[in-house]
Amino acid sequence: MLYQVVKFAAAPVAHAMCRPHVSGASHVPRTGPAILAANHLSVLDSFLLPALLPRHVTFAAKNEYFSGNPVSSWFMRLGGSLPTDRESAHAAQAMLDAAADLLERGELFGIHPEGTRSPDGRLYRGKIGVAWLALKTGAPVLPVALKGTEKVLPVGSRVPRPAKIGITIGEPLKVSGDHANARDRRRVTDDIMAAIQRLSGQEYVPTYAASHKASNGVAEPPAKKTRRTGG
Predict the structure, then answer these.
(1) Which residues pair with 61 in a beta bridge?
(2) Where is this region: Disordered (predicted)?
(3) Is CATH 1.10.3720.10 the classification given to domain 2-214?
């Protein structure tokens, strides 16, 4: 109920500010589970896609999004996003288990396989959690290409700005293999990233975005701690 209230209020704002062009929305099933695997250009990606699709989408989002920019923090909490501690393998698996439960209940789950925002607009190597989910649950994977979202809330900015964005949703991918097999997880993840790249047109980089940032001395903006008021 809270999600629908937030969506009712947020969708018109997203349309007015972003002038979105959404194509391929018909690929999202009206009922039943599906995984939306999207590229990652902006902190608001995990908000914009759920705001612009008719069905409830639960996204995975890093912990910093819940305690950093107050705009993203507010939407992440009210939108029911799943917080992810990227430094803890145990916490990451707990998030995947929670996502699997959502899919088993027939819901939609969104994930950014890159694990962090692209530092330069290119598409980086995907992490294997998305393949684990797809192979474990059997849920179809829909590749999603976001374009222009980094202009809405540029890195370091606290206030969103008007910018035209595009969202392209591809046809469901057929995946096969064993979720417990590392080679299958890697193969399926690479196939998903290739599908995203075909939709987005981004240059592909066969390394992890986090590793690229670390090797080039690029750090994520520090999360600004906000004062809790309870709840």
Answers:
(1) 83
(2) 211-231
(3) no
